[in-house]
Amino acid sequence: MNVKGPTTQLSGEVQLPGDKSISHRALLHAALSPEESRLRNILRAGVTTSMINCLRELGVEIIEANDDVIVRGGKWIQPNKPLNCGNSATTMRLLMGALAGQPITAELTGTKGLQSRPMGRVARPLRNMGASISSDNAPLVISGGNLHGIVHHQAVASAQVKAALLLAALQATGESTIHQPGPSRDHSERMLRDLGVKLQTEKHKVTIQPSDKSLAATKISVPGDCSSAAFLIASAVLVPESKLTLRDVGINPTRTGIIDVLTNMGADISIIANSKSGGEPIADIIVKHTNLKSVTIEGETVVRMIDEFPIFTIIATQSEGITVVKDAAELRIKESDRISSLLGELRKMGVEFIEHTDGYTIVGPQVLNPAQLESHGDHRMAMSLAIAGMIAQGCTKIMNSEVIDESFPEFTKIFSQLGANIARK
Ligand code: S3P
What CATH number has the domain spanning 20-221? Predict the structure, then answer.
């Protein structure tokens, strides 16, 4: 991808693609229901294609019809080839939870990148519930069925682990309780409650009772992805004279850490709530260019913006003062090491920083120089570097940027329509 900077203005209206986390959960819940589900605005991207392909191998009928995805699920069949989760850890971790409850054996595999991601945090509690799982890393073989409820204390606040355990607990005998050290995105809880599942939440604890009835059909219009919206919000704040209106974005408070942080830094962001779907609040967001002051990010805010650190780091380079990120060691085991690898790419643009084991310190504002950069196979790194390229004066090239298609295939087209000089080649 080539980006010729500086972009002088971004303006217009954008309808965001469906939320990645909510799309994964809607597909899985629908796949476990014997009734027909009609899902609107499911994310159509690499990660959800991986999920859909795996579910089809498991005998789930999935029809993609314009804006809707129709799912006919129920009992899953034994797949006759390994299930390829591609580069999607959400696909693998959530499928592990759902498969643990099914009396079949399946092999799960994925890209080299996915094989290096930790799966033990899901595999260990699922084994304690009665599933057999061959390894703590992909490729792994899982044999499920006959699960019993569990009381599990998670070491880190991870919504993927929680969602996987809820999918298993739904199919177990007896109640399950999951304790987390802090809050994490609660899409599974909202959606399952919307489906009539008995589920109680209290602070960072979720208790779920499996039902003897089968799961009802999922009916949802998936809100726009607020993590994809974050790239547009950040670019509008950073590029002079900009104003963007983002339509129908999910504003679940467990996901909007980046909006709160930017607002504290002085950003001009208006949120106009408009509807709800599947228990999720939805809003239009209007964002304008402003100069930003630095902040410290730590504690629970880190989890509320866990996917937004690549783009936040670009913002940190342009903010006045000392930005400190702490308590964010989880960033090292995302699609790439989102501390070392990202800072390494920014060093190529001339950025100075101090790296910590759980974050970094950056003093801004700093000049970004155009450079040839690498995505490290990480969709959010590629998109963040593209926005860095919009601020730099000259041509920035991002290698292996096609990975953007994993979560936001419309990224380049949208940004070029809004005024950026950006091209895939
Ligand atoms: C996700 C949760 C987060 C996030 C990932 C999607 C989810 O991971 O980084 O992109 O859909 O539950 P963790 O829960 O492992 O932090």
Answer: 3.65.10.10
